[in-house]
């Protein structure tokens, strides 16, 4: 250890002698730690989903509590992020019952059984007992990869979903999918010439993580006029251009169903992507957190990359793949719990050891998140006491999400100069707005991008917080925004109405 | 966003042209992602607390389940990490009651009140109601800094503890203290010449994080012969040497009470350290997660760095300080929940904005961890229905920890060639072992450090898993190990006995 310390320090000494500018914090006045002296990579990161718009929305929310008289709305509606329970989506009863029993094992004692069985169904009690037998206490650090029993259940879930075997040793439980993505990207990049292909538009976790690890994002564009489709041609163009410039392209991120774009890939399309990765020697990162948010299940069912890969010829059976999932999305929406997992397919065992090591620095994913992963992948089944209620709850959320997706797309498509693809999946719409030149000029005067100007106008007028397309990436010269379709269904007409009113008055003000 | 992407990519292109060796993953055969192509900084990280010893302990644990006949023990005792509930420490009843009610708000409905009031005391119900009113649902993402109400409660706790004001806006809730430490260190370093002072021995989170961000650890030594004391002289020597070599020393990590060393700093000593940091323009990182694990409270009470700083003259009132706390330690031991916070004292508001941005990439700390922070900082008080039970539970754990600390130190000091300082605080002892040359030779043959050889021998013989001193750093030529004193008190004599037996037979085998 000491040797390591000294060696590392020595390396630093040598390398810094080769640098031309040395700035000592200690020679300056005022604060030692400032935006001048802080880490430049951290400074360069952008993360719009929680950027200027949500910060302003938070301030308006506070103002509503103190002095609502000056605002034209009585509520801030947070459509900036897929956070269903913030917008009053009810949690799945069975999941919360089991989790609360694990939290308070006193309830499982014999002397409390009579009372507790009036509050809890027998299958929730039984599940909590099985979990606690395997976990010990939710207050103890678990294995850094996650609790073995839960990883076994995840493997069985994947097997049922795909029809192909899964090994619990290839599964890492994580604090939401984001943590897994960050760890894998960190490991996958070697230096500034390492490139990772990301879709445009993308979820900004990817660009932010690449900024932080100082690797090169290699953008490929989704085709808006073909329902945000993705062809091999575009992937090939993207990788060829990057390699011509000397970038070592190592991995391809696919978000399926898409975020912010909501498309769901066909099996054929997935095959094409796998062929591309195989031929180009590129690791696949499949962000599949919206795998149950599928609104046209007959036309566009969800196919996991793992399943499609396994169904292909022997030449593809070494293709390296990471697949990410989360408890935050689906019909569960347990975002605050920070639960998730990733599966490693055909990943070098030595790399999995490195992933274990890096996971162990944070000790373990939080156990409550792990429990929710168990419940998500292992819900009540037909015949279980809790199944009818579970099914009714999940179905109601699913159908309502589908209705709201359709309604919001209709609302957007009815607006002057706005076009919007349907959501085949996920929780978002990403409409394109043709902004008048006058609006673009006005935005320039405010020092804002035109889409931010529009979104900020919407927030100030309606209390609805969406995220400008520039936060996700968009074809130059086009303007978009991302909105969830999560507002409560009984308030949805009012929600759409306020967006229509705002858009009309915005266009009346700025129409060329 | 697009512009940012292109710019970043372009930078990479330019910079890589200046590099001599370019290795394309795509020109190789076999796996794309290997330990050859992975990120070299990740590869270089060491993390002994969950390294070779715990991995072997895990394997032995599995073997005990399958075929215990070949092992000399019936249980693996994990003393490698402070994980009290893994070793059957009972959680605080009130905390779990509140947490389980927050998890299952159905229990708070009027129709369930009669039943629930037989299972839960009124103050737990009332607390859960207040929390849920402020949180909404535990399933929703919260503010990235943590729930405002809980940050307000943390601020009040700090005020009560220190007698000086605390601002909730300066508090960030985190997933354990580790996450906060990693974020702050990442921000504090600028490049390879940025140095952060860390104690030797240290908790390996610090060296691992510095490895990951490619900054220079600047070691200072704790004085074992003076109860792991720390003088200004040693700090001065360390910073002077580093600066002479061109390192930009920016921060000083102090772990108080110490980990792995268990010392608790006097107020005078803390003043001296603050003076040093002020004069040398060094940011203070105070790792104070063991602040309630104080076993000689009259001789060595805990003083927070914030309190001591505030008590000093006006020239110190701009000293930058981060103070870290956790729900994993104390008498609570809620490790699996991953809860914690840090307070920013005199930190540039622009830096706090950067910390907010970086926190927002992971969306929020898990809400269950946040709830435990609320309970830890705001426990039942005299007059509350739950106070007598809370006090009895905390006192029992506290007294038992004190007894076990003393007993284990006595055990170690009774062994041939072993000396061990008392634990004034924390959960560990860090005895020094004088190993015979024969043992050092035998270790060499096995390709192990002598302390790893000893610890591995102990594990194989007794099932007790400790961590060799080389995992924490130690004076060259000395050998130590870290053991928690957390095994259950009713098994403690057996535990000590098995260590004694092992040590005797080890010494008989290798005595020079």
From TrEMBL, chains A, B:
User: What keywords is this UniProt entry annotated with?
Assistant: Aminotransferase, Pyridoxal phosphate, Transferase
Q: Which GO terms describe its molecular function?
A: pyridoxal phosphate binding; transaminase activity
Q: Does the keyword Transferase apply?
A: yes
The residues forming a coiled coil are none
| Pfam families documented for this protein | Aminotran_1_2
Taking every annotated instance into account, which residue ranges of this chain make up the domain Aminotransferase class I/classII large? 121-491
Write down the InterPro entries for this protein, in alphabetical order.
ALAT1/2-like (IPR045088), Aminotransferase_I/II_large (IPR004839), PyrdxlP-dep_Trfase (IPR015424), PyrdxlP-dep_Trfase_major (IPR015421), PyrdxlP-dep_Trfase_small (IPR015422)
The protein's required cofactor(s) are namely: pyridoxal 5'-phosphate
Share an example GO biological-process annotation for this protein. L-alanine catabolic process
The family classification in the record reads: Belongs to the class-I pyridoxal-phosphate-dependent aminotransferase family. Alanine aminotransferase subfamily.
Subunit and partners? Homodimer.
Q: What is this protein called?
A: Glutamate pyruvate transaminase
